[in-house]
């Protein structure tokens, strides 16, 4: 039987070693140990990690994956399909709900832009009588990874791990930094940060936040349109403070 050290498995699977240790803590992996305490993995671990990555790509939580793995270990494809299908149906329903929210928010932004475009060049000072200011209440869009009827992912003591590999995580940080280069201001919160951006960034912010939840479900995002700015709030457990600083505070 072929045996691999943790660094070798990490390289073969495109995952950081920290993620493998996290999966072990979560009961998804059970490596053997050498007499000196080093972790050893077999070919079956590589196959299991491929399955875990595939399940993460369709938005399944680690709790879902933990329940599926015994079926994957001992059953055939039909049995795995029967367990996976209702979970994916639930994710589809949740995604459809988010799509509806994003479309409504996009329509709200379009109306706001139309009101701004209608302001005459010689108009006086902006005040509460302005059609844009005195129109609709700000719309709030919450984006989380929690399926309907379940608690959100931001809770005390949540373990923090990103399922992206090293290159993928670096690329995601770069995407956020490009977007946040337009930051107007930011305020640090007790468990996160509030970033103000131009309104035209709303679509990209929502898209990137939804993508982020696929690999980092411990984040919680909210978008709010107020005045002429889009306000993005990012929150997470205490263990995510370093990631929030790295990802969302414009350098």
UniProtKB/TrEMBL annotation:
Record-annotated HTH merR-type domain positions: 3-71
PROSITE patterns in UniProt: HTH_MERR_2
Keywords from the named record: DNA-binding, Transcription, Transcription regulation
Pfam families found in the cross-reference section: MerR_1
Domain of life: Bacteria
The protein, known as: MerR family transcriptional regulator
